[in-house]
Amino acid sequence: LAKTTQPISMDSYEGQEVNITCSHNNIATNDYITWYQQFPSQGPRFIIQGYKTKVTNEVASLFIPADRKSSTLSLPRVSLSDTAVYYCLVGAVSNYQLIWGAGTKLIIKP
Amino acid sequence: GAVVSQHPSWVICKSGTSVKIECRSLDFQATTMFWYRQFPKQSLMLMATSNEGSKATYEQGVEKDKFLINHASLTLSTLTVTSAHPEDSSFYICSARDISFAYEQYFGPGTRLTVT
After folding, report:
1. pLDDT at A96
2. H-helix or E-strand spanning residue B58
3. Number of neighbouring beta carbons within 10 Å of residue A11
4. Quick check: B92 contacting A, CB < 8 Å?
5. Smallest Cβ distance to A42: which of B36, B43, B110?
6. Is the pLDDT of residue A58 over 90?
7. pLDDT of residue B84
8. Residue B102 has pLDDT above 60, yes or no
9. The pLDDT value given to residue A67
10. Would you say residue B35 has pLDDT above 90?
11. DSSP A12
């Protein structure tokens, strides 16, 4: 199972675009990249998932370079309510046991 | 869709007693459910993987006799913390994998256990 590395924390301001990069040098061919958001005392919430290139949904975009050794979660025009911990995980579809790293604590300021 | 519920959302029990936590997939069938534990300001730690109709697979270091897991149906898994001690106080989270959409896990809201 691939291990991921993310910044421990990040600060930004309301209305800005926030990019959180995750490193996963040992990602396997069958691994997908998934990002979750977690608020205090709540279960994680799925944000986005991708395998390669770019994926976009109504809340975020996920950019994955060709070598797939990293990925970037992009949150457009963040608000105070986006303050949370963001986890990047990689895992194979067939198994999908997830190893959770430390996550990135994102703090949005007014 | 894809809602996972947990009950109770929080529980306080005395040391030495047992506590059961339920995890339900409300609108989908889950062949696999996962149980996690999360201590304050720490990440999630996988405790066990539960497959419907079979014994759970526990992660290294997790006592199977202390954390009893039952996955009797495609919509319900239970975690029983037996003979609870204060060090078992934690946030317990379950997740379920939708057999129709194998790529995603859906997480429950968590259960806060406090052992006094």
Report:
1. 60
2. strand B57-58
3. 11
4. no
5. B110
6. yes
7. 96
8. no
9. 96
10. yes
11. E
State whether B34 and A97 contact (CB < 8 Å): yes
Burial category of B99 from C-beta neighbours within 10 Å (exposed 0-12, middle 13-18, buried 19 and up) = middle
Determine the residue among B5, B10, B44 to mutate to test chain A binding: the one whose Cβ has the most chain A Cβ atoms within 10 Å.
Answer: B44
Tell me the residue ranges of DSSP E strands in chain A: 9-13, 18-23, 31-38, 45-50, 53-56, 61-64, 70-75, 84-92, 104-109
Per this entry, what is the length of chain A? 110
Token pair for B59:
């992660």
CB nearest B102 (choices: A34, A93, A101): A93
pLDDT of residue B29: 87
Confidence of residue A77 (pLDDT cuts 50, 70, 90): very high
B3 close to A (CB below 8 A) = no
